[in-house]
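Give me the fold.
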Amino acid sequence: MFGKGIGSVETLIGKNCEIRGNIFSKGTIRIDGHVEGNISSGSGVIIGDSAVIKGDIEAEVVIISGHITGDVIARSKLEILPTGRLYGDIKTPKLMIAEGVVFEGNCEMEKMSSEESKK
């Protein structure tokens, strides 16, 4: 459904859910609620259009259509959809930004090894 690099969703944080604390998962995470804390996945992170995140995100693939205040590291690809708002720095080798996106921050694009992204 979301393309290469995103497996089936293993963890879902619903629209009416609020989490304060860090989230770690080996599988894909979809967030539609509010999270105050860092998010890390060995696979993918999908930020739904109703999501509000205050924290950093690191994953293989990140797809954003909600609101993020924090830095994003996408080891393979970062995609920001038209409703996405990102206030923070990004680091990824592949970047797709749709028309209408709000992005305030710095962007670093280079091929990353998995060792490098963990620094």
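The first helix runs from residue 114 to 117.
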